[in-house]
Amino acid sequence: MSEFDDLYREVILDHYKSPRHYGRLERPDGEAEGQNPLCGDELSISVAYAGDTISDIRFEGRGCAISQAATSMLTELVIGRGIAEVAAMSKDELLAEIGIPLTPVRLKCALLGLGVLKVALHRSAGTPLPEEWANLGQDLELR
Amino acid sequence: MGASRVTKTAQGPLTGEGVAATRPTLDAHRQRADFAYLEELVNGKPLAYLDSAASTQKPRQVLDALREFYEHSYANVHRGVYRLAERATEAFEGAREKARAFVNASSTREIVFTRNATEALNLVAYAWGLDNLRPGDLVVVTELEHHSNFVPWQYVAQRQGAGFRYIPIDDSGELQLDALERIASEGRVKVVATNLVSNSLGTINPVEKLGAWAHEQGAIMVVDAAQAAPHRPIDVQALGCDFLALSSHKLCGPSGIGVLWGRQELLEGMAPFNLGGEMIRKVTLERTTWNELPHKFEAGTPAIAEAVGFGAALDYISAVGLEAIERHEHELTAYTLGRLGELPWIETYGPPAERHAGIVSFNVEGVHPHDVAQILDWEGVAVRAGHHCTQPLMARLGVAATTRASFYLYTLPEEIDRLVDGLHKVKQHLG
Ligand SMILES: Cc1ncc(COP(=O)(O)O)c(C=O)c1O
């Protein structure tokens, strides 16, 4: 195991233990939740907008470290960015941030938060969820 | 559900020293020389493979048999008139004879090759169930069934309008046989289906007793031995069952082949399952008649080399000795339950060590099993985390998943120590 990997692992464990932007916005502009029935991960995300950008975000949930840490990292990635840009954000951007290789099972855990956020953004914009996320959304019971 | 916290019962190396000479033992260190994969490094650490219940590693002898067969005796089986096809058929049918001897069946006609235990169980559920189940009948399974002996029965029972019941477990994961009377009062019991060893909890189920009860009810007894056959001697006649399923890949053999053993009179009375080549006697434009047993149930080109490799695996584990394997795993289980029992932040599931096969399911307080498995993987310890294809059981335990360590003839107590060390890291990072 390289020290480089170790560093990533430290970051993930840190986000898991001290999640950023944890909680729920009182007056959100967008909201969604989802769960991964395979491992019982649960998440809800609320977002607030200022014009075309995401001005604030909160998440709540429980489950495995990967799902919770990935969502915490996601909140840091998206805050202050354009709504449309994040609604179109690729999986790879988040996975690069997570940094460690994930098996397909863990990949679903890692992508749960991004899926939930996409549902919230597309729903509030009245646009359909892109197809790849709609398919994943069935597995992840996104609502 | 309360966990069984079993007290420490065994310690130290289990290499046979200090064990009464009359009891069959095995030397896991010696067996390991046959398993190249165990030399593999994971994250720069030696691999502690504790997931043999999912599938075992393969010894050199099995790999050699596959290569040897492909290089010197390979052709399609049956129907060939040339020498090579005859050799291939001989090897293929030789594997069937080995399987017969392995489960002590009275004839090779009773040994049907399938893809795996799942297909064997589906074969019975469809080919027997569709013609024999009707409204008012009951199919009885257990609360700790693997989905492969649960879902086919649930489905076929529903299709036939028959009832579907399960035998509940108690808090230590053992079947509550006092429920049988109530179940019998609710309809005509026609099928009792259970595993001999639970893949999630390691519970060893009282199949003889259940078989006797099934037969009193006029039901057939279907035994899923996928998790038992690799680890203890199987005698279908002594078990008193009607059907028994197993998979080659769980006992050192290749994947892609399994066995359904069935009592000849029952197999003879059943309609075929898959139809096509090899399973026919005569085909005309008007009608088709079926081949004799066991070929009636083996449509299409079978897993030929896999069968031969399976035969080599049966030779391998029989030479080690099933009693020795059972004993070795029992000692590992007792050791594991003992070591985990010392950790108050770990909950173990399943019966006490005496009635517990080489599978230990547990949870680390407050930590998701996937994270447990992930951190153990970083330490080079391979365990499984999930529902283990037993979702009804997970619901009964009130958990989404467990972490499971499982053993085989190559498992060393030192590897259990590495598991425990890894669990301390889990606790330190996430607990
Ligand atoms: C108890 C039990 N039954 C059935 C099966 C299914 O075996 P296979 O996947 O080889 O068909 C398994 C394997 O996980 C098992 O553990």
Summarize the structure.
With 143 residues, chain A is α+β, with helices and mostly antiparallel strands. In chain A, 52% of the residues lie in helices and 19% in strands. Chain B folds into two domains: 140 residues, Aspartate Aminotransferase, domain 1, CATH 3.90.1150.10; 255 residues, Type I PLP-dependent aspartate aminotransferase-like (Major domain) (Aspartate Aminotransferase, domain 2), CATH 3.40.640.
Key terms:
heterodimer; A: 143 residues; alpha+beta; Sufe protein. Chain: A; three-stranded antiparallel beta sheet; 19% strand; globular; B: alpha/beta; Aspartate Aminotransferase, domain 1; seven-stranded mixed beta sheet; four-stranded antiparallel beta sheet; 14 helices; 17 strands; 38% helix; binds pyridoxal-5'-phosphate
Please give a structural write-up.
- The complex is a heterodimer of chains A (143) and B (431).
- Chain A is of the alpha+beta class.
- Chain A has six helices and three strands; from the N terminus they run αβββααααα.
- Chain A has a three-stranded antiparallel beta sheet with strand order 1-2-3.
- The longest helix of chain A is centred in the last third of the chain and has 22 residues, at 104-125.
- The radius of gyration of chain A is 14 Å and the shape is globular.
- Chain B has two domains: 22-51 and 321-430, Aspartate Aminotransferase, domain 1 (Alpha-Beta Complex); 64-318, Aspartate Aminotransferase, domain 2 (3-Layer(aba) Sandwich).
- Chain B has helices at residues 28-32, 60-72, 83-103, 117-132, 151-160, 180-184, 207-216, 236-239, 264-269, 304-320, 322-341, 369-378, 391-397, 413-430, and strands spanning 41-42, 45-46, 48-49, 111-114, 137-142, 163-167, 188-195, 220-224, 243-247, 258-262, 280-283, 288-290, 346-349, 359-364, 381-382, 384-386, 402-406.
- In chain B, the strands form five sheets. Chain B has a seven-stranded mixed beta sheet, sandwiched between helices.
- With 431 residues, chain B is α/β, with parallel strands linked by helices.
- At the A-B interface, helix 1 and helix 5 of A face helix 12 of B.
- Pyridoxal-5'-phosphate (PLP) binds at residues 116-118, 146, 148-149, 195, 199, 224, 226-227, 247, 249, 389 of chain B.
- Residues 116-118, 146, 148-149, 195, 199, 224, 226-227, 247, 249, 389 of chain B line the site of pyridoxal-5'-phosphate.
